[in-house]
Amino acid sequence: MPENASKDHLRQCFDQEISHPDFQQRYHALQQAHSPLQDFPTASSLLEFLWDSENKDYPKKDSCLHALIAAVQTREDLKSAAVRLLLRAMWPALDHLHHVFCSLLPNVPDLFTEVYWHFLEEVREWDLAKTTKVASNLRWNTRKRLWRVIRNAHEEIPLLDDIIEGDDDKPRWAVVLDHKNQLYKHRKPRPHVLQTDAELARDLARTIHSLLDEGVLKKEEHLYIIHHAVYGVPLQDLALRLNLPYKTLCKRYERVAAKVRLHFDL
Fold first, then answer.
1. Are residues 27 and 118 both part of a single domain?
2. Can you tell me whether residue 231 is helix, strand or coil?
3. Contact assessment for residue 85 and residue 23, using Cβ atoms and an 8 Å cutoff
4. Are residues 209 and 123 in the same domain?
5. What is the pLDDT of residues 41-95, one digit of tens each?
6. Which of 91, 96, 166, 230 lies at a C-alpha separation of 20 to 30 Å from 198?
7. What is the pTM (predicted TM-score) of this model?
8. Number of domains present in the structure of the chain
9. pLDDT below 50 — which residues of the chain?
């Protein structure tokens, strides 16, 4: 079965369970134990509130998510219901993480399973003293957990020497750009991300390769351009993969981009 089918099946199972009358009884027990949930008469109404992007009551959303995390950590009898509500509440974010990692690491099997279990690990180890920005920190910390595991288990993105020429007429660099442009075609262009087509890919690869040969770029510098400007790896994630402080990498990338701009429109 395709991974997306498994993911969709899992979501449907959660939806069916949460809508069942028996689950409503478990939700009432959660409400009695955690007051932030008492404003929402049903589990479905709670999820609708957490999903509502137009509702800017972030402190209330934080308190609800924090209550569910606390139930997972402190109440064995409520843990199962709380886990299901957390997974469904954060499903859009987890689905987005899966989408991003699929575009960067298409050969990793059962990638959504990795997203799923690392999210649950983050919930289990959440510091209950943290009560603000719960959703964003859950998402970001899950992402960091994934990078730590994947960067040690899988090969790095190919180096420039491996992608200048392919077996066919189109270099592998061009294939990557084709995929990236298709993936992000509905997004507004970002000034720090390369926006070009496959026809220019060979020139870009050779330009950066020549900068390496001439000593203009160091080997680690060309990796910054490949990973961020072409592959679209966020600098935060790239910093984790390279074991560098985020601010340090930002400064280095800006210096490298300034060098390349002299030779190519980056």
1. yes
2. coil
3. no
4. no
5. 999 999 999 999 999 999 999 999 999 999 999 999 999 999 999 999 999 999 8
6. 96
7. 0.58
8. 2
9. 1-3, 5, 153-199, 265-266
